[in-house]
Sequence to fold (464 residues):
Amino acid sequence: MSGLKRSVFRSAITGPIITLLLGVSAVGGLANNDTPSYNNGDCWQAGTNTTCTWNHLSIKGAVYFRAIDNFTGQGYAAYSTPIHAAVNAWNSAPGPQYYSFTAHSNDVWQYINVSHSGSNGLTDSLTAITWLCDYQTKACGDVYPSNPVEIWYTNLYLNATRLDTMGANAIQSATAHESGHGMGLWHNSVDSSSIMWPNLPGNLVPDASDWGTSPGCANGGHGTRCIYGG
Amino acid sequence: MVKVIVSRKRSVLTVLGTLLLVFAGVATVQAGSSPKAAPVNREAGLTDAQRNALYRDTWSAFQAKYSQWIATLDLSKVNLRTLPHRPLLASYAQPAAENLTQATHDADLVLRGTVISIRPTPFDGTYVSLRISKNLKGSASGTIVVHQAGGIRPGSDWKGMFIADSEAAPLLIPGDDVVLFLQGGRLGLEPQAFTGVYWSTTHGLKAVPGNPFGRGLDGLTAPAFQTLISSLVR
Fold:
């Protein structure tokens, strides 16, 4: 077969396959929901390919997140107790993640905001949303990224339009869930006890799926341990 | 004497050359084996106020650029059916209803229609226009605009794009033939979470994954579904 023919043949075969895959993707809707999301990569291992904090690439072990209180200044001091409970729950859970309102060297910031439907991507069907901002591109996104992201900082928006009537547990659950996104976790569609289960009123504290297992994603692990090691 | 000098020069050159090759080799191996070396922390030494200002400025710059990108987006040149879908990083309320009777009862409007166009916004979801083919509950006719979470997002290079989907109601796109259970919200009529959207396909109805009674509707045709809803409305 000549080079030209081979090329035409390849196009004739791959074209419909790609079209079919795109079509299936479009009809099938949502992508794989669970962490890890990229080639079973472990951020703590060199040469792997996953989303993690910008200052933690190829580093194994403790990773520090700092919650930044924007909600008090926005007039939502009443949200303080459940939000603090969510931050404390992540901080005291097993795994490499530390999460606190107190500064720590090399920490990664998660701005916790309260907003309403019609702002920052929130609508009435959403109780909260997270925007991950990438160190390399300086762009932000509210979806599972198409390429691995170096999480530089995160903007969490709790939807008061919904949460005002849902109570403190829903606020805590939404905060803990979105904070998990800020750590690089996606939804968990398998374990309904996971904080990354997408529906509210959900769980209040992370479970074993959320901190995951060592030695890591490449070995079938989940959660913060598979991303950051430790 | 000359031979000795030449020989020494050769030796020195050989050693230098070898060192150069070794250095280049090491550099190559390091670059190849550690493509994700930890970056220098360029924020070391910044005060909290300086870090905050840096983040706020880049967030504002991103918002402006993204708004401009949406404003200049010409969807008439885009085949939306071929775009990849990505789920929102969000949390959702529980499914709006436990069964079809409750979903029908709670809906302000139930209708069947075909999507004509969509108008994505940067931070306010997407407005979807439909031509109504059958009104099943409430009064609506002609065309209607429905609001949804998610929309069109730029790729990392700001050139490509993809669809950002709410898991509670994935984005409708032109040509979709759907039965919708709608409720009034802050931004207008929205599909019920998880129980508000049913696509009519050649294989029958397709509900949103996560709809608690969606499986029970598998294989049902849209006309049969309409008859079922009409019986519940009566």
User: Anything to note?
Assistant: The radius of gyration of chain A is 20 Å.
